[in-house]
Structure formats: structure tokens, C-alpha cells
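Is S-adenosylmethionine placement plausible here? Inputs below.
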Amino acid sequence: MDPFELLFEQLLISQQGRRLSRHLLFEKHKRSVAHIITEQHNDIINASYTVTDSSPHSAKTPLDSLKRITLSELCLDTVHHGRVLVCRNIVKPFKMNAVQLIVEDPIVETGTGNSSATDSEVVADRLSLYNFVNFVGWRSDVSDCLPVGARLLIKEPYYKMAADKFPMVRCDNPGDVIILSNEQVDMPLLNGLKWSDALKISYGPVQAAKFESSTPDQLRFKGNEKVKHKEYASAIAIYTQALALEPNNAIVLSNRAQAHLELQQFRQALKDADLALTIEAGNIKTRFRQAKALYGMKRYQEAGGVLRDLLQANATNTGIQDTFRRTLERIVEQQFGRYKVLDVFQEARLTHPPRLDHADYVGPVHVVQVAGKGRGIVATQDVRPGTLLMCSKAYAMVFKEELAKVHIRHIDDLPMHKNYLSKTHLITKIAHRVQQEPWTTRELYDLYAGVDLPPFIDQNPEIEGSQIDMARIEGIILANCFKPDNDSWKPFAELMVTSEEDEVHNKLDGSAGLWILPSYINHSCVANAHPIIIGDLMFIRAFRDIAKDEEVCISYFPLSPYQERKERLQPRKFDCQCPLCEFERSEPAAKHTRRHQLLEDFGKLVPKIGTGSADMIPRVESIVSDLRKTYPSVIPPKTEGSRKKKKSPKVDLGTSILPQQFRLALINPLDHLGRLYLLHNHREQALQVFLELFGLMPRCGDMVQKRMGYALAISSEYEALGLLGTRNQWVDVSKKESELMYGEDEGTPLSWRGNTLGTGNERTCANVSGFRIETPLNNPVVARRREE
Ligand SMILES: C[S@@+](CC[C@H](N)C(=O)[O-])C[C@H]1O[C@@H](n2cnc3c(N)ncnc32)[C@H](O)[C@@H]1O
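Reply from A.M.:
I modeled the complex. C-alpha cells:
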């Protein structure tokens, strides 16, 4: 069809509010497929978005209470509660973000052997299945899972206008889609229905009963071919056909176990491997697959037992040896919380995307009710600073690097909002996991889902996939999602709890993930613990002493002046009652206003400060001085650092969190002032500023990383002054702070073992908040001074 003819017909139809004719549906489908193929050639991945105005619908009514509805009865912008659509797929589907099909109604038999409609009258329409098949990519071939002729039931269908201004049936919830097998044709719902004899498609041969004429062996080979091409979902569909013909075929069962392993469907893999072993007990390959499935399910002890037995008979098999070694490492992690942190960093660097293979660890903490906060986490014993409280692997995570590959363009070139990307994909990933692993649904649905959703109260120990509830999943990620700082594992995570749509979408652009146990940790501005995200692992360590039964809290955002924190808490719908907030609330309002004004003045100067102009020094000094005056009894900065004064400074380790000592408004301006001093070689003043900054930083939340950075900067300045003893003392301080955050790796704090935090050569330069500081080895002025 001529593209202009197509456009003209589309225009006419859209003006008349009619659904697309059958041949137009085919033309559009064909064009979309051709478009995808071209884009594939250009190595661009498309994602098609149809953004719902309301929360995605999930049917709650059981199938046998639903009444049939036909395509022609569907009303626009309506969720058809209490109804079910019976339909048949009539095209080779394609998958972008959603699986796109064209489906048709069945024909009603009249009882006289005639049908109520002729073939040409059978209504067809578009169906978009979101979150549906395995998330193996936007371009996956899903035709083996949804072949032409597949009969489907869509519970409580939603009919809506798509972004191209034509209607379509949209289904967000995989649990609401039932693909009927050959045995399911006798359902009462299908009584009196038959399908048009000719599958009225305009291209390609039709194979409704695709595999029926094949033998189990032929199907096995076909499945193996799919595995070779990494099309695991298709392979599983084909092996399943083979097993329908020969249920006890141990080889097919074992091969299907392998395909499930590839898709990380460990429980299904274990089921197949177990069954295959009851038929052929000694099969090494199948036992190895069984061990891998156990490993995937985190049943490391059992996996270890199987692997040990296997090794006894196959001592030289390197694959088994390697899996056994990894299993032992997981057992040590799971039981003792011992991680080789440096290796974890390395692994995160080398794995793309960095989904890491490590065990979860639950340290001395448990979940309890906390007055006024719902549930929370408390320590089960006294805990020392640096103690690992938990290590948790993300329930689901999307990485910026994955999203970067997605070129957002609707198939009809309509502009789409990029910021929906990570949110949509995180929801999809979670829905997919729920679908694949229904036994994990309970722990997911138990999470707080926002003020508008009541707690989940289903008492079933194992919630079935049909209970996938996209609205709840959305609520859960908005209340509990952590977003690592832009570039992967910077130790700052922000929890998003907001009802402000735009804000949420903006924040959800980039990497984002959901971690189950950490989601129970409540907020405090003076947090005693802090999360570090490496790949998809979250480590949470204590930053201060925590007494038995004391609550463990993290900060949901960086520690900032009161006004800013207040604004950030507003959409989260709770007031923070931490000692700092209590104290600052009790301060006279005039002080807050004055600080706010001064910080606004400072904000206006920032672009000019960025140019490094020396004129900025007195201006920033004046703002800093005025800010100091807004705090009571400001302790003047110590005057250490003189070359004559050899006495080591008394280092404040920040263990005190007396709210009166916080002077948060000073931090940012002082940081800029320090940089300016350095830039203009006023090194002694810079040292004073860094010393003051270090003193201003309590051991709270993200402050620990800054403390580490300033301690490093101070040590560099002492080195420049030739005060090596003092320098070493500050190096130790920085090491201590680094240990607090990352733990120790074989006795050496992580930041000193590579370039994970600084520039990689911390003897020659340090990195404070991204600002390079020169030391004698690379600063000619200081080097000369030393020579003198
Ligand atoms: C990530 S969840 C924390 C666990 C949650 N308390 C629960 O019961 O599952 C975040 C929610 O916990 C509550 N919350 C967290 N910190 C709080 C605090 N300091 N005071 C009051 N409520 C808090 C708020 O309802 C917030 O939206």
C-alpha cells in the first residue's frame, strides 16, 4: 500500500473515531516490523511507549466469574471490569517495549452448523502486552511463545487510544493473559465458539499447529538450535512441546533445565533437573545443572553438597571445580558477612551491566515495629562503627548503561519523554521477576507501597503469578527505590518517596534499583548507617556505635541545611524527628531566613567562582563570615599548620552528633573557598579551611565520604609544608573513614589499594569533591620551597 494512501485512510478513520480495518492493521504491523528491521541494521533499539494516565490495571476477579466480551464491544478509555476477551493472534508478533499482536474475535456457532459471521466480518484489533515475555531485549523474537494461531484470554481488558491516535487493547499485567494450550479448548467460556477457517493474514504461511507433526527428538534438536542462538524462551516452548509427547524424556528435561538456568529461572530449572535425575540418576550434566539451580536459589549448602559429590567422581572437571569454589565463597559471605570488597569492585568494573554474583548477608539487625514510623530496623546487639549490617542484592535493577542504548522513538515518530525510561524498565523488570519467581512475590508485596495503598494482606504463603499487581509494584518502587549516584557505585544513594510525578520521573532517569531488606530502613538526617552500592549489591555499614535495640537509620538524601531538607521531606509525607531537625526547628525563624538569604547570594556567585577569578575570594570570605555569625558560639578555626608548630592536631573523629555543633550552611561556601585558595596558591589558608570543614562534618550519611576526602586533602597540605608526621596522622584518619564506608579488604582499606576513589596515585595527588589538589611531587612552587 502506498504510504500516502495509508496515511489518508488513517486520517479519515481517526476523524470518524472508527477502529482500523483489517488490511490497515496489517499494513501498520508490517511497516512496524520493517521499521524495526531497519533500526536493527542501524543498531538502534527502539522502545515504544504508551503512557497510561492512571495506574496500570491488574484484574482481581477469578477467571470463572468473568463474562466474555468481544473486540467490537470494547469501549475506549475503559477497563472492562468483570469481562474477559477471547481472541486469537493472527500475526507474527514483534517486541519493542511491549509485545505487539493483532488479534481477532472468534465466531459464534449458531447451532445449525452455520456461523454468526462470515470470515470477512470477523473483527480484529491491536493488542499490546506490556511486561510480558522475558526481558531479554527490546527486539526479541517472541513468535515461538505467541505463534500465529495462539488463542488468548485477556482478563479485564483495557481499551485505549494509543499514541498514534488509533485504539488498541492494552494489557500491563502478564497475569491477566492466558495463552490457551490445546487441552484447554473445553473450557465453558469457549462453548459455542469457533475460529475462522482461514487465518486472514496477508503474509507468510500459517502454522497454527506448529509442532504437532514433529517427534520428540526432532523437537529436541530444534530446541537445541534455539539454545545455540540464545533464544532460550523459544527453546523452552519447543522442549515443552516435546515433553507433552514424551513426559519422561530425561534428555529433554535436562536441556530444558539448562534453558531455564540461562533465563535465571532457577526453581523451574531445579524442578526439571530433579525430575530428569529420577529417570537417569547418574547423569553428570544434569546433576551439575541441579547444583547450579540450587546455587541460583541461594541454597548454597545444598549446592555445595551436590558439587562435592560430583567432584569426587570428576576431580579434574574445571567447571565443577570453579562452581564449587564460588559456592564456598558464597557460604562464607552468607554466614559471616565476609566479602572480598576489592574483588567486588573489580567485578563491577568488568561486568556489563554489573549484576554481581554474591550472597546476601543479614548481620546483627532485624525488622520491628517502630513507633510513628511503621516498620524499621534495629540492632540485635551492640555494634561498632564499620560493622557490616547487611549486604543485599537488588531484587531488580536497571543500569544507566543499559538505558543509554535505548533510542526512544515511537514507531510513528511521535516525541516521547525520555525520563520514563528507568521507571518503566524497573517496573517491567520487577513484574518479570514476580512472573518468573512467584515465590518472591510475598517479600516484595510486604514492602511499604505509599500512603494510598493499604498493606498487602493476602495470607497465601505463595502468591500466584496471576496476582501481579502493577499499581502496587509502581507504589513500591516510588516508596523504596534507591538510585545510585550517576556513575554507578559512588557511595550515595537516594531514596525516592514522592507523589510528584514529574519529580519522580526526573529522578528515575538513570540507574535505579529495589533492594528488599534495606527498604525497611527509616530515615534520619543524623543517620548512623549508610548504603554503598557496588554494581547491584548494597552494603550497609554502621558509621557510629549503635546500641542493642537502637534503630538503624540511613539518610534518604545528602545532609544539607534545614530549609533544603524540609523541602525534600515534604513530598515524602512524614516529618523527621531526629535531634538535628528538632534542634533546628527550635531555632528562631530569623536565623533560617538569614542563612537562606546568604546561601542564595552565594548560589548567584557560583558560576563566577567556577571561572576561578581571584576577585571571588573576598566575596566568598564575606559570605562565610556572615554565615558564621548566624550560628551560636562559633569555634574559631584552629591556627595549626604553621611550619614551626610540630604538634599534631587533635583530630575530631566526628563521633559526636550534638545538633548544636552542626553548621551545615557553611559547608558548601567553605568548600568553594578552599578550592579558590588552592587555585591561587594560598595553601595555608586552604589548609585552615579544610581543617574547619573536617571539623564541621559529623559522621552522618554521606558526610563520611567527604570526611575521608578532606582528611586526604589535609594530609596533602601537611606534606606540602614538610610536616610528615602530621601528614601521616591525617592519612590514618582518612584510612579510618574509608574503612567505615567500605570495610577492610585483606587488612588494607579499599581507597588505598587502587583508584577507586581518588586518582589512583594518592601519594602525588588527592581528590576532594572532584577537585584535584597538587602536592609537592607535582607542585613546582612547593617543590622549590622544599629544596630551599
Ligand atoms: C522505605 S520505607 C521504610 C520502611 C517503612 N517504615 C515500612 O514500614 O515499611 C519509607 C517510609 O517509611 C516511613 N518513614 C521513614 N522514615 C521515617 C521517619 N523518620 N519518620 C516517620 N516515618 C518514616 C515513611 O512512611 C516513608 O515513606
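Short version: The chain has a mean pLDDT of 78.
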